[in-house]
Amino acid sequence: MIREDAGILRKERLESLLEDLLRDHLVLAPTRKGELLLLEKIESARDVVLEDGKTKNSAKSALFPQRERMFAYRAEEGKVDIQVPPPAEEKQILFGVRPCDARGLLLLDAVFGGDSRDPYYVDKRIRTLVVSMACVNPGPSCFCLSLGGGPCSSDGSDLVLLDLGDRYVVEAASEKGKAFLQNPSFEEADEEAMAKAEKIRKEAESAMNPASIAKALEERLEHVDDPLWGDLTESCLGCGVCTYLCPTCHCFDICDEAAATTGERIRIWDSCQFPLFTQEASGFNPRPSEKERFRQRIMHKFRYLPKDRHMAGCVGCGRCVTECPVNLDIREVLEKLSRAEAQ
Amino acid sequence: MENPYVPFLMKIEEIVTETEDEKIKTFVLSFTSEEDKERFAYRPGQFAEISVFGKGEAPFGMASTPTLPERLEFSVSKIGVVTGALHSMEKGDMVGVRGPLGNGYCLEAFRSKNLVLIGGGFGFSTLRSLTNYILHERNRKAYGDLTVIYGARKPGLLLYRRDLETWGQRTDLRLHLTVDQKDKEDGWQGNVGLVPNVVRSVAPSPENAVAVVCGPPAMMKFTLPVLRDLGFSDENILLSLEKRMKCGIGKCGRCNVGSKYVCSDGPVFSQSELVRL
Amino acid sequence: MSQLTHEIREAARKLLRNKQAQLVIGFEEGSLPLRGRPCFIRKEEDVDRLVWTSFSDINVARYLAKRKEKVALVAKGCDSRALVELIKENQVSRDQVIIIGVPCEGMIDRPRIEAEVGHKAIVEVEETENRLTLKGRDFEKAFDRREFLYERCKACDHRNPVLYDVLVGQLVEEKVRESFPDVEAFTALDREKRWAYLAEETGKCIRCYACRNACPLCYCPECFVDTSQPQWVGKSTGLSDTLVFHLVRAFHLAGRCVACGACEQACPMGVDIRKLNRKLVKDVKDLFNYEAGVSLDEASPLATFCATDPDQFTVNP
């Protein structure tokens, strides 16, 4: 029986598939730059590295870049002329992102969509195909399963590749994905391959801690007292590493960069961990220290967003755990909070 | 796709220096296209993001009333980069405007209610808009008694002198002005006392009434218990919050308070909503 | 290593018990293999969290500013040097800190050792004497830790704390470093190559400020990047703005930076931040014959005027 929603990609055909895609798409894939694995635009199929786990940066960079021009302006002699950049036209493919990153896009979709659609994000999003790579060996810092995701989850992806060793099983998770499977590089999926894939999936999941975090927290977080937050955050440096590398963090700043009569208004990433984030013109700051700002981050991700958007602001990718310069582990924080006495 | 981040242009028609220290000026803006004017249908309590190209954007409450649609007015206190740049602009200069933003005052819920408007200092901007809106001949009958209590630190810091004078001569509102302190030379005849104390002595009745409070955090903090003592319930006390804002449309995360965004879910909240946040 | 752990715990226990210190700042095990992290101990019963490993690598002097209580600091050479500068700059008073000095034999360069095992996930680490064993899901590899130290540790000439109240372990032999081969190699390159290198490194920066926030000497309540009137530098990741940020920060640290490497270690993107700082450390040495963080009695050259200060730039523009 020919399955419409699954196929096989033999490893030796991967390169030609990518070269084919590169001809009329912008392709972003994990690639090695020095010692870093980054999700970046690739020029050649040989630059793609699919076996080394998560990229340092998350997939949000592809749709919500760190620096983005909103419009340019020319202001002289009492006249102002605004030029908005034309919408993105190039189709793009995120190839080899991990399921956690793909899942993070769902939250960004909710934030940047809605009533006031953000054209900068949405224009790119509708032109993006997400082909993710399932994680068969989740690392010690990964906790996607605890947040409703999973190492082989298809949430947010159009297609998911799963490595069987000599070939990939490719499964479509959307109509766009199904259409993509028509590409001649894919072969019919056989029952043996599908069974093997299922087995690998189960092994990957059983290697992770299944305890669910999100639900327990939503209630608990209402009752946590102040001194506990101080203890939990004493080592926090107040830098922006956790927020900038997080697949779901999306706070930004808007500023003008000006020359004499011309300039541009740009959007740049910002972090709720920085002191100026909530500093008011009067000088008053409702979140004056790392303690309040860290608390805000946890509350926003695990209480406010679930209340507001019915999804947690965390996909359990673990980047904040590995990249925090002082190893402030969000999982330990969440665990201590969920055990805290109700006040 | 419509782009909510791109401002439309408006021209500065008039600049009124409101305060004796010249730190607060009201900018009167005119539209540069009919289309922009038609689309900018706003209500008191909303705000707009004003752009000074090259310097940035900042949020300002609507100080004008939608019953006079030709002009928009914003009062600006000179504090930082954008407000400083605005203050050095002249008649004829162009600014960018994005809006109207925020929820504004719920006029439908105010109908046939008695309204007690309590403002302090610079926060009186949107209450001036609301007062003028209610006083308009088309609207006045829809609302009950109107009590306006407005205070500033000194007489020379009171905004909207022209309005205050005309309001003082009307019989369809009760106006109580107060200053925190006065100098012997300034000839001030009105109340001397902090706004919360004036509220206590005016003692507006909570019967079928809604109180709207907008001012500096300290004033709002001390006015709240006075209103509660007078018998106002939390649902009938409305506050207009101020927070650092950027996008104004609930995306950049800055003004997040609890599960709400002050820019899009507010800035007007009832006290009962705030307690839940 | 474990002997040092034991002695550190004993020292901390004694200080807390005798109320000589209300807080002990030291290192504990991280939540992941290959990680250590700072810990804050206020109660005697928590003292066993303190450890000394090849991953006790951040600069704990960073946590001293603005404290009211008496603090005991577990300090290796670079931590103690940063502390010396903080004392000279009146951010901490000498009698507020009790230094538990630890002679250090270098910390492990995590990115390098992760690359060495092909970036495979590491599940367990064992450390005994100089042997470091890394275990993954399907591999086990042993290393001599001395071959995988941070570059800055390999070149370190202040392995022993320069100042201490309590010394644990045995003082170790100091290397004598006479020159700055890293800086000299870089300045010997031609202009285009140097520019290309700096532009490439700057391109990696994501303006997270981990470098600045991890630095013990970056304690300004308002950093120059946050000033808006006037705005000295833009906040975006454009090349010009980002490079200016790093250059100005390096200059603000001239004569104060002890080249501890906390900045480059905190950096998630592997930016070679220390290169700029090292150049200024060399310049300060050449111009003023001064090295930061070595002696409490040596006045900081950029904070004091001396008639013999070099002034070619004013005389020969």
Question: Describe it for me?
Answer:
The complex is a heterotrimer of chains A (343), B (277) and C (317). Chain A has helices at residues 14-24, 60-63, 99-112, 119-125, 175-180, 191-206, 214-220, 226-232, 241-245, 290-309, 319-323, 330-339; strands at residues 6-10, 26-33, 36-41, 67-76, 79-83, 92-97, 128-133, 159-163, 167-172, 187-188, 252-258, 262-269. Chain A has 343 residues and is α+β, with helices and mostly antiparallel strands. Chain A has two domains: 6-206, no CATH class; 214-339, no CATH class. In chain A, the strands form two sheets. In chain A, strands 3-2-6-7-8-9-1-10 form an eight-stranded mixed sheet, with helices on both faces. A seven-stranded mixed sheet of chain B has the order 10-9-8-7-11-12-15, with helices on both faces. A six-stranded antiparallel sheet of chain B has the order 4-3-6-1-2-5. A two-stranded antiparallel ribbon of chain B has the order 13-14. In chain B, helix 4 (125-135) links the parallel strand 7 and strand 8 (146-152). The longest helix of chain B is centred in the C-terminal third of the chain and has 14 residues, at 217-230. Chain C has two domains: 1-117 and 149-176, no CATH class; 178-309, no CATH class. Helix content of chain C is 33%, strand content 14%. Chain C has helices at residues 2-17, 77-88, 110-116, 151-154, 181-188, 191-204, 210-214, 239-252, 262-266, 274-288, 312-315; strands at 23-29, 36-41, 71-75, 97-101, 122-128, 131-136, 140-144, 166-167. Chain C has a five-stranded mixed sheet with strand order 2-1-3-4-8. In chain C, strands 5-6-7 form a three-stranded antiparallel sheet, with no helix packed on it. In chain C, helix 6 (191-204) crosses helix 8. The chains are: A alpha+beta (343), B alpha/beta (277), C alpha/beta (317). Chains in contact: A-B, A-C, B-C. At the A-B interface, strand 4, strand 5, helix 4, strand 11 and strand 12 of A face loops of B.
